[in-house]
Design goal:
heterodimer, A: alpha+beta, seven-stranded mixed sheet, about 35% helix, globular, B: alpha/beta, Rossmann fold, 5 helices
Chain lengths: ~775, ~230
């Protein structure tokens, strides 16, 4: 809605005429609701016209639903509230019917989807609270602030529940490196994530960065936060008790971010740059103070319910608190701390100013809570109360600006079962039908320096990944690992999905995303416990996009069930398309796993000369949708590798068991780039080479080294432990084969040109810094 | 050793520092809020930890340097009491006038978090008695503004008086621009005041005190301080 937001300056209200006044309803398009009664409207408000309704992102039938629901024409403020609650971002109206199929329960799940974040039990009276959320649209419009506030928002989601954040991760996708905007987007997004997380004081321990031309107009910025809480003091959004004070905490409300959630629920066109005013501005300093203040008042037992003001700000937080608690809420906007003068009710209700919270406090603890907030220099204002009426009433300047049924605002949001068409299956590409255009060694050297496979050190060195003093495994491995408190437990975290697989086969791609998260956690020795998902897709009103969504969700669901890996929180980001071109379907999976002893965690790096390198899992040489096929042969083709979930489980259990017994000296999951790339990464991680046997006769050599078959790991063991390791895999029915031996400073495959590890490292580390410096 | 860790709004490595002091000295540090006007009785060591006091707004450390507690820190330093400032703490000490010079933005204008190598220039200070002169230690940095600079005369004095305590170097102790990640003049990573009792440094020794988390190379600094006070007692 370009132009709408700046236009409010002239609407800055001077409330000369107060009270409810009759205003004629435009009935050219809409028939009156069954309970139509006198329409209350505030003077100075714009007339509700079909154009205004459309600018609020509401379809004519959705507007009709509003009329039916409230029995009259909504006021301008009410229209804004509906648009905030019923947009895709807040209501999940296109996705909800499909999300119901996801498994969300397990004995260790304390809280599944529906709260600010998911909660799992990790024993010892401790719980892990985590969620991932997108800030794609804002990060494209204003990369630094868009990404920064994405981190800020997800951190708030976690500490709102009473958890102290202990780690952050992210999942980033950018357009073609050759696209003129890509470099500045990478620069801004990375600086924004670092700028917020570093200042807030949480280590960013993992993530994923990739490039593809399909993200040219729509980069993806998904931020994940993980916090630690006590199982007996987790805080929820549902209000309880009538007449309880509703308290506003944190920063003041300004005019930033108005309609942010609606903007995020529409596709981009040529005018996307004009939407910059809808992006919020972050202040990590305030958020750090808010964290400390919130945890302090929670610890003092002051809080009944708490909800952060994220998307759709005051509207969404107040409605959720009331609706979840079966209570009404009355807000008096005159009490809301504002940054600017003359803000209208509409603006205050839709502002997405950052670092704000809404709480229901125990009345007897009000003074104590206020003193704590004052100590931290934060605003504290009683802005309303809970009521028995189940109405959401907003007052401003003595007038009632909105009076709506609170349950229906959330529960009666439209739900669409949108038409979809399944993505047609692609042919399987036989390994021997792909002719290798270059030698194995040449292909490895080339692949390791491509944008998707190269080192992302340039990115993660801009994130403080060691603060809090608990980082066991830093970025660059399979999963980030942090010690929990003083140990011995540790937490492993990863973010994964392979969008090109999802595009080629949404169902298998959805399965693979979950399986890869499972493998990455397993490879560091952690037991996978639960996931958060961030489902990034194009316009759901297009049946083929909806088909991608449905297929991916089904795949995720199947894998989560098979791997006992439930979904406890998530976020859906649709309309990621510009001028009719959608992103690759990208259901990012954030996985969390537990180590009983963090000191047993293993890394990907080769450790000792003479260690034996073993391959776990079956290799058929699957080249369809592989990076070898794409980046070496120039073909984005074929069916992606199928995921045998039973095999994933068997392989995973063996690897975790071997790590638990202390038998493995290194472990690495196999994914993008296949076996050769994984071995190169293990060698480069410590600058230690390996001598490798030739590929078996049964598989063409290039397919053996670069195929992307699933359910596989490379591990190393001391030579003396080899027999025991092999016997254990055999007993579990998991294929295991010797690949070679660790040692020297070359990666040497029998019959191929040996490559110095330092040469590989230079290529691996070189591409991204050179690209960002504008020199390639 | 009785330590007091100052807490300014926006500081975020105070817990890391307090844990390290507990691990190495066996005693809990006192956490001192910035609005206090006195240090706890019997404070041996004052620590200004890392973070983003006041969001780094205005200039890094500028607002914290004017907090009420800083008068007490000045008095402690004037009596010869030991003061350690790490990262933002170093910036605050410079802004407070307890150390000369300033920390500018890193030369490549990016925040950098990585392990660096420090050459310990002297071992005859209370802060470095746990190391040998010339020893190289590996500790992490995490800062956007750690590029130390002062006017030529001040730098010459610092060097002449042996007040540069830590220098960024290669793993074998060679000072080289490739190993000076932030571009600090003379690869300066840490300096002391004239009295030798106030140390400011950009790297985080407190994050490398356990073999299971990174390395133990930072431990020597704290262990040396504990020894210093044991000997004095």
């Amino acid at each position: 809605m370009p132009g709408l937001v700046p236009g409010f300056a002239v609407l800055a209200p001077v409330w000369e005429c107060r009270g409810w006044l009759r205003q004629p309803l435009s009935r050219r398009m809409y028939k009156p609701g069954p309970r139509a009664r006198t329409v209350a409207m505030i003077p100075n408000e714009p007339k509700i016209t079909p154009e205004l309704v459309a600018e609020h992102g509401l379809k004519p039938d959705e507007y009709q639903r509003i009329l039916d629901l409230i029995g009259r024409e909504p006021s301008f403020t009410e229209l804004g509230i509906f648009s905030a609650m019923w947009n895709e971002h807040c209501s999940y109206k296109s996705s909800r019917v499909h999300l119901r199929g996801l498994p969300t329960r397990a004995p260790w799940v304390i809280q599944g989807p529906g709260e600010n974040a998911g909660v799992i039990d990790i024993g010892d009276g401790l719980a892990v609270v985590f969620k991932m959320e997108s800030h794609n649209h804002p990060s494209y419009i204003e990369p630094y602030q868009g990404a920064a506030t994405g981190v800020g928002g997800i951190l708030r989601d976690v500490f709102t529940m009473g958890a102290r954040p202990i780690a952050c991760l992210n999942f980033l996708r950018f357009g073609d490196p050759k696209h003129p905007k890509t470099r500045s987007l990478v620069s801004g997004v990375v600086a924004g994530i670092g700028g917020y997380g570093n200042s807030f004081g949480v280590p960013t321990v993992g993530g994923s960065v990739g490039f593809h031309t399909r993200y040219d107009g729509n980069n993806l910025v998904n931020a994940m936060a993980v916090g630690l809480a006590k199982t007996d003091s987790i805080f929820y959004a549902a209000a309880s008790g009538v007449g309880m004070p509703i308290v506003y905490l944190g920063s003041k409300t300004g005019r930033d971010g108005i309609h942010g959630a609606s903007m995020a629920s529409a596709e981009f066109g040529e005018d996307s740059e004009e939407k910059r005013p809808t992006v919020q501005v972050g202040d990590p300093f305030s958020e750090k103070l808010l964290l400390e203040a919130c945890l302090e008042i929670m610890q003092k037992g002051c809080v009944i319910a708490i909800q952060d003001m994220g998307a759709a700000g005051l509207t969404c937080s107040a409605v959720e608190m009331g609706a979840k608690g079966d209570l009404g809420v009355t807000l008096d906007l005159d009490a809301v701390p504002t940054r600017e003068t003359g803000m209208s009710a509409y603006e205050m209700m839709l502002s997405e100013s950052q670092e704000r919270m809404l709480m229901v406090l125990k009345p007897e603890k009000e003074k104590e809570a206020e003193a704590i907030f004052r100590k931290w220099g934060l605003d504290f204002a009683i802005v309303g109360e809970t009521t028995p009426s189940k109405r959401f009433i907003v007052k401003h300047g003595g007038d009632i600006m909105a009076d709506l049924p609170i349950k229906e605002l959330g529960d009666e949001a439209p739900v669409y079962n949108r038409p979809f068409v399944e993505t047609p299956k692609l042919p399987v590409i036989a390994p021997d039908s792909v002719k290798p255009p270059m030698s194995i060694a040449d292909a490895l050297e080339k692949l390791i320096g491509t944008p998707d496979l190269c080192s992302k050190r340039w990115v993660w060195e801009q994130y403080d990944h060691i603060i809090l003093g608990n980082t066991v495994q830093r970025p660059g491995g399979d999963a980030g690992v942090v010690r929990i408190e003083e140990g011995p437990k540790g937490l492993a975290m990863t973010t994964d999905v392979t969008p090109r697989y999802c595009e080629a086969d949404p169902f298998e791609g959805g399965k693979q995303a979950v399986a890869e998260a499972y493998r990455n956690l397993t490879a560091v020795g952690a037991t996978p416990l639960a996931i958060t998902d961030n489902l990034n897709f194009g316009n759901p009103e297009r049946p083929e996009i909806m088909g991608q969504f449905v297929g991916c969700v089904r795949g995720i669901s199947e894998a989560c069930k098979a791997l006992d890996f439930p979904v406890v929180s998530g976020n859906v980001s649709l309309y990621n398309e510009t001028n009719g071109r959608a992103i690759l379907p990208t259901p990012a999976i954030g996985g969390v796993g537990l180590l009983n002893d963090f000191t047993k965690s293993v890394s990907i790096a080769f450790k000792n000369e003479g260690d034996v390198i073993l391959l776990i899992g079956e290799t058929t040489g699957w080249l369809g949708q592989s990076l070898y096929l794409r980046d070496i042969c120039g073909r984005e083709e074929g069916a992606p590798p199928p995921v045998d979930l039973a095999a994933e489980r068997r392989s995973g259990e063996v690897v975790r068991d071997l790590i638990g017994k202390g038998l493995l000296t290194a472990a690495h999951d196999l994914s993008d780039g296949g076996l050769a790339v994984a071995l190169a990464e293990m060698a480069m991680a410590k600058g230690l080479g390996a001598t490798l046997d030739a590929a078996p006769k049964s598989v063409p050599a290039h397919a053996f080294w670069f195929g992307e078959d699933q359910a596989r790991y490379v591990v190393t063991v001391k030579a003396a432990d080899r027999d025991q390791t092999v016997a254990q895999a055999k007993a579990a029915g998991v294929p295991m084969a010797k690949l070679g031996t660790v040692g020297g400073d070359m990666l040497a495959i029998a019959g191929e040109r040996a490559i110095k590890v330092s040469v590989l490292s230079n290529r691996f580390e070189g591409w991204l810094p050179a690209y960002m410096a504008g020199s390639n | 050793m009785n330590s007091a860790v100052l807490v300014f709004p926006g500081i975020n490595r105070e817990r890391d520092m307090a844990r390290t002091l507990r691990l190495v000295s066996g005693r809990e540090a006192s956490m001192v809020w910035h609005t206090e006007t006195q240090l706890p009785q019997g404070t041996d060591l004052v620590v200004l930890p890392g973070g983003f006091s006041y969001g780094d707004y205005l200039r890094c450390g500028a607002i914290a340097a004017r907090s009420p507690i800083m008068d007490a820190v000045r008095a402690h330093a004037a009596k010869g009491g030991l003061v350690l400032g790490v990262c933002n703490g170093f910036q605050i000490l410079c802004e407070a006038g307890l150390l000369p010079g300033v920390l500018m933005r890193n030369q490549h204008l990016r925040f950098i978090c990585r392990d660096v190598f420090l050459r310990v220039e002297r071992s005859d200070t209370p802060f470095t008695r746990g190391y040998n002169a010339g020893q190289v230690i590996r500790v992490p940095v995490a800062h956007g503004e750690g590029n130390y600079i002062a006017d030529g005369e001040t730098v010459a004095r610092l060097e002449g008086e042996g007040r540069v305590i830590f220098r960024y170097s290669s793993p074998d102790g060679i000072v080289d621009p490739d190993w000076n990640h932030n571009g600090a003049i003379n690869a300066i990573a840490g300096i002391v005041n004239e009295g030798g009792n106030v140390l400011g440094m950009m790297p985080h020794p407190e994050n490398h005190v356990e073999s299971v988390i990174g390395s133990t190379d930072g431990r020597g600094l704290f262990a040396g301080l504990v020894q210093h006070f044991e000997k004095a007692a």
